[in-house]
Specification:
Elements (H helix, E strand, L loop, with lengths): L3 H20 L1 H11 E10 L4 E8 L27
Antiparallel strand pairs: 1-2
Helix pairs in contact: 1-2
């Protein structure tokens, strides 16, 4: 389970990005170029009068400096319990 502090930090960073993207379209385009891997595919959906957008993206440095939880679970020979 993710630590609530970490979850709040991720939300805060995503919200800051969202605000920046709305405020600065030129910066938004630059970020989009860095985050997208390859091209986007737009498929028209005539019955809904919209497009389905597909593509691959990377998180880039979004989580840089954000401490992620680390759990160690000993297995096999690395088990710290002594055999009885």
């Amino acid at each position: 389970m993710m630590d609530e502090n970490l979850r709040a930090e991720i939300r805060r960073r995503l919200e800051a990005w969202r605000k920046l993207l709305h405020r600065e379209p030129a910066v938004a385009r630059q970020l989009q170029r860095r985050l997208l891997v390859g091209r986007l595919t737009l498929t028209p959906k005539a019955e809904e009068r919209c497009y389905e957008v597909r593509g691959e993206a990377t998180y880039g440095q979004l989580f840089e400096g954000c401490p992620l939880p680390w759990h160690w679970c000993p297995r096999g020979d690395s088990n710290t319990r002594h055999a009885v």
